[in-house]
Amino acid sequence: RDDIVINRAVLLPKAIAKAPEGEGCPKCGGFVYAAEQMLARGRAFHKSCFKCGECSKRLDSVNVTEGPDKDIYCKVCYGKKFGPKGYGYGQGGGTLQSDTVSISGQAPKITVIDTACIKAAPGEGCPRCGGVVFAAEEVLAKGRPWHRKCFKCHDCHKTLDSIIACDGPDRDVYCKTCYGKKWGPHGYGFACGSGFLQTDGLTEDEISQNRQFYNPDTTSIKAAPGQGCPRCGGAVFAAEQQLAKETMWHKKCFNCAECHRPLDSTLACDGPDKEVHCRACYAKLFGPKGFGFGHSPTLVSTGGAATAIHDPRPNSGSRAAPGHGCRRCGYPVYAAEQMVSKSGIFHKRCFSCSDCGRSLDSTNQNDAPNGEIYCRGCYGRNFGPKGVGFGMGAGTLTMA
């Protein structure tokens, strides 16, 4: 049609308000508003500027890779520009064939990436090489970032991951085998998984002389006061940690303070002296004492005199603070002998009916309004309904 007018004006690019230096989009320098913001390297990009610095492919938070030159790349271009190079590192293909192999019979040299070429501030980079660690190659151990290439056992250089890595007390990482060799128990019989050692033709004295026994010094690395092992005061690392009463112990130190028997979580008893004991030693030191509480059968008097009855309740020592001790006697109550009711805590020996003295447990005790505990019978007599028909277990009573 002749009445159609075609506008042939040249489209000019949209003007973008420039931001102050270092505050705008790193690609174009303009202001970035929240509706079009893409984040990388802690800086905001426009969605239209969020492209690979090499091939200009559109990126998102899943496939963006931050390069050491402060630019962003797709994963393919990052691998080409900063990934490992050399024989066998093709674009996802198999082993590459080089013409130089058929000519000289030797493979070309492999280029080794120097991860320490960009140095980090002291204490902030990779602990092994000191270089800056970027997100694409970061491995965390003990809250410190490592290069994947550097995350190897200090002794055997075996590549590690989060499952097999062990943090050593020297702030380095080891595989489990090397950690056991260097920091685990040493001596006769502690070979790497071997059974009992046979020694033919040697006397016990000769074996003792040749035995390479090492007693690890758990106090070599001192911890801050109140934070180390309660027995030796040394720092406790995760591979040798034992917990008791919210304190950390070395496995070597976690033994009975009296008989030095090795303990675990089922055998250990926390004593009021802030030590750990086996059950037998705990009973000897802190259990009830007197006639009939020994490690022998009950004694019988042969002279005809009545056996002296011993009251096991404490009658010496300092009493507990008001409201914190036994409701019956007022002395401190430790976990091994604690009985709980609505009225408060009792010793096992004090957990008895206030009227008839019958021993109680959680199934037959009754909390009374006066703060004491009773058996069911005494509770009924004292606080139950009274009158005609409410006798002690009898049928309905009738008045004459």
From TrEMBL:
<dbReference type="GO" id="GO:0042805">
    <property type="term" value="F:actinin binding"/>
</dbReference>
<keyword id="KW-0440">LIM domain</keyword>
<dbReference type="GO" id="GO:0060537">
    <property type="term" value="P:muscle tissue development"/>
</dbReference>
<keyword id="KW-0677">Repeat</keyword>
<feature type="domain" description="LIM zinc-binding">
    <location>
        <begin position="23"/>
        <end position="84"/>
    </location>
</feature>
<dbReference type="GO" id="GO:0046872">
    <property type="term" value="F:metal ion binding"/>
</dbReference>
<protein>
    <recommendedName>
        <fullName>LIM zinc-binding domain-containing protein</fullName>
    </recommendedName>
</protein>
<dbReference type="GO" id="GO:0030018">
    <property type="term" value="C:Z disc"/>
</dbReference>
<keyword id="KW-0517">Myogenesis</keyword>
<dbReference type="GO" id="GO:0008307">
    <property type="term" value="F:structural constituent of muscle"/>
</dbReference>
<keyword id="KW-0479">Metal-binding</keyword>
<feature type="domain" description="LIM zinc-binding">
    <location>
        <begin position="124"/>
        <end position="185"/>
    </location>
</feature>
<feature type="domain" description="LIM zinc-binding">
    <location>
        <begin position="227"/>
        <end position="288"/>
    </location>
</feature>
<dbReference type="GO" id="GO:0007517">
    <property type="term" value="P:muscle organ development"/>
</dbReference>
<dbReference type="GO" id="GO:0045214">
    <property type="term" value="P:sarcomere organization"/>
</dbReference>
<feature type="domain" description="LIM zinc-binding">
    <location>
        <begin position="324"/>
        <end position="385"/>
    </location>
</feature>
<keyword id="KW-0539">Nucleus</keyword>
<dbReference type="InterPro" id="IPR001781">
    <property type="entry name" value="Znf_LIM"/>
</dbReference>
<keyword id="KW-0862">Zinc</keyword>
<dbReference type="Pfam" id="PF00412">
    <property type="entry name" value="LIM"/>
</dbReference>
<dbReference type="GO" id="GO:0005634">
    <property type="term" value="C:nucleus"/>
</dbReference>
